[in-house]
Amino acid sequence: MKKKFIRVMFFGALALATGASFVGCKDYDDDIDAVNARVDGLEKSLSELQKEVGGCVKSVVYNPITGVLTVTGGNNESFTLPMPKDVPEYTLDVKTEGNVVTITLMQDGKAVGKVGTITLPKVETPDIPESFDPSKLTVKDGYIYYDGTKTEAALPAASACSCSIMAITNESGDIIGYTISAPDKTTGEMTSATFSIIDALPLKGLVFRPECYVSGIPATNVYSIDYNRWVLADSKAEVSETGEVYKEDDSEKYEGSEILPQVWAYYHMNPSSVSMDQIETLAFTSDDKVNYTRASVIVPTADKAKSLVAEVDGQRLLKVAMTLDRDKMPEKQLIPVFALQAQAKVSEEKTIVTSGYATVHKSELTDFVLKTTKVKTPAEGETPAVYEDVVLYGQDITRAGAKNDNAGKAAEAITELADYTVNYKATFDLTNVIKVYYKEGSEEVLLTEEKLNDFGLKVVYEASNYLGGKANEDKTPQNTFINTTEAAKGIVDPEFEGKESDNTIGRKPLIRVSLINTANNEVLTVGWVKTEIERGDVKPIEITAFDKGTYYYGCEDFTGKLDYLDMNKVYDQVKMSKEEFHKAYTYDKSASMDKDVCTGVVEETTTAPVTATNLFEWTVTPAEAKTIIDDDKKANEMKAIVVYKSNDGTRADVVITMTAKIAVASGTIKNDCKRESYWFENYTYVKADVSQPKADAVKYADFKINLFNMFKDNKVVVSDVDVKNFTSFKDPAIKFIFSEKNADKTVKIGKVIYTFQVVGGTKLQACTDYDAEKGTGTFSDVATIDGNGVLTYAETGIAKALLNKSAYNEDPFTAKVEIVASAEDCPTTLLPLTGNTFDVKFLRPINIVALSNATLQDAKENAKIDLNKMFKLTDWRGKDFLAKDPNYYSYYGVTVDNVVVDADQITTNMDGGEAKPVDPELLSISYIKSTDITKSLGTITYNNNKQAVSKEFKLFIPVTVKYTFGEQSTVVELTITPTHP
């Protein structure tokens, strides 16, 4: 038997899907190999199994000894799935109270893990009553989900890498479904499938599934189809070069045709596992809702014998056959409504379930047309693999949308290019690419397979004979070259005299496609598909790859040439002379240089005398080579592919591959090029600070550091570069950037968290309002690096806060800097380096240093103490502030107004225990700022308003010092000694 294999013209190769299996924990593969789990030659995976049987089945049986899972579908068909032996089995216990559902995972009668809850929406009659539906359960990442919502119930961690089987039970302990989990063999990811047991739960509700809406009311369509049939123009016509001719029936006795399809009403069932065996009777109730006038009531009836439970768009629905008198349907002023009543059996009792009301809608269908799926000719900038449905040849309209003068004539297909090409050793199933469209009003609608059957229509295929042939040959009936019996099934099966033959290659058989009314075999519309048989997609001839050497990554393009010596090897491998090869083959540029595997551009050499030596030139830019370097899977290897195609389609493609390795230079920044005295802790960081105090005040803009100064002779030396091969990096250009690793950290000051980002390598920024979910925040500059290597600290609020977070000798704010080396002639081509990162620690210019033993005795009138008894100021070197030679206060911008005491926030421990705010009725404390900052930091005045003090206690005084580079705050202590020493 031939395998089904097709190459659609202009499609390129189609991907073939293969069955999947599973892999779990230890010995899992061995277990699977030991089980014969093949059904009709296909090994079923979990996802394939559910696709095959759907979500509702009759039984699920697992044999722990053999490791075989057997699932019996609704049609009594059984499927088996290989599973590991002794898979852990669980029970999912489901209980409901009101609209709250509790799910508990049980194993051996005991609860496992957390209990999950589901709150179902409360709905009003006549909508479907909400209740637990096992088909909505899934397992993902080890957790149990209901209707897409994650619950707290989870499989034990030990089951995360293995399969599991979970029975779902209701409040009565009845098994109502199963959830099976297993890892996918290809991806290793856990997959799950839930099967609801048919008939396990009674029918609880019905909800109408509308096809459309009438005045806002859900409705089902009452279709009618009027058409003029097509007939063969001359049933006795001989086979000709122009082929068959059909025409619309224009005889006097023929007055047109009509189809009145069965009316169907669709209903969602709760639960979806209900079968027709549980429904004893079906009936419609109906009424007319009057808008302006009164009319008779329409009375539809339900035909239970025709009704069924069907899978529609992946959902299990009740499909009810409706009978009504179309002629008595009310006019536009009246809206007929109906509701379905189903008598269902619950245990030994019978109950009536009623749906909500719906209405009917008259719909006339016209303009049926046959189309086939093709690759659309791409517009400029459009992806080539765009598919479109185009009308078949010989239809009422052309593919351009105009009226077709060749309607009903096979001649149009005969003269046009083939729609599809078929390998002479394979077959092509047309039924996969033929579609039917119709018009409902002005809208064109695709006719689904289900509607096709509902309308009483079918698509019929037949070989359409005509005389054709190769050039300089006698014309031959083209049906001679295909199996006409298979053609009647929609399958193009090339053969000559009943067997596979080279003689079929190049033939162009037609298949007539007709849309037929099954009631009377009349043709609603007819068209033709043209195919071409070719040797085509046989296995290409892969020429041994030509190694084009090594590309030393740098500024220059890589070039590789496919020369006449290489082509001589090609001729030898295909067993042809040069003349024979180029007569039989032509270079196919469109098929060459597959972008998924190739890099660069290949150009054919067409000018003499170069063509005598080099036939193709392969060029790769540094940027293109960089994509290969960055892709770990490519292993630094580039490829170029040149494809030659057969001129007559009778030979396999010849595929010529060129390869080249990419060598990447590297360099090292060694410590011996660094100024030893500027580096700390084994050359891992440098310090950034302001100048030591002098007469002129420091400016904020002076907080900068030239990073080149950290290196001997102000030059960064890159060592260990192979400049012989990598000439682009003989004298690399050097620059400094902020490392992206800065964005990996956060800094916390008090309750505030600072998040960082690096912009273009030249800006380090931070924000305090970062939204991790959105990835956004209001960022401000912290520091910048210019092209000359000068790092400048930014004058922003966030930068100041980070700078003042701690003293120079504690945990100063730190940024990571990276040295980047690039080719001097092409700055975007970078040289990989080691030893090229280091830290810059920004030293806070001044510090508040708390002093101990500051005291005042209680009950002295207006007892005073200077703040300089409680703290002192030092600079980034640890030096105490001086008043002159130079004046540290004026240098750093500390003035009498910049020392602030928040008297309202002073606390005390005079009651013992934790500090509390000062009670102003008991104590009076005030602050008077200094008049000369060089002599005083300000004065605290203390008064006791009440009782004598027997024990010493402390005052905790918040102090803030502002200066050029921000501000610092601390709390200093003042001890109050007893009234009577």
UniProtKB/TrEMBL annotation:
<keyword id="KW-0732">Signal</keyword>
<feature type="signal peptide">
    <location>
        <begin position="1"/>
        <end position="23"/>
    </location>
</feature>
<feature type="coiled-coil region">
    <location>
        <begin position="25"/>
        <end position="52"/>
    </location>
</feature>
<keyword id="KW-0175">Coiled coil</keyword>
<protein>
    <recommendedName>
        <fullName>Surface protein</fullName>
    </recommendedName>
</protein>
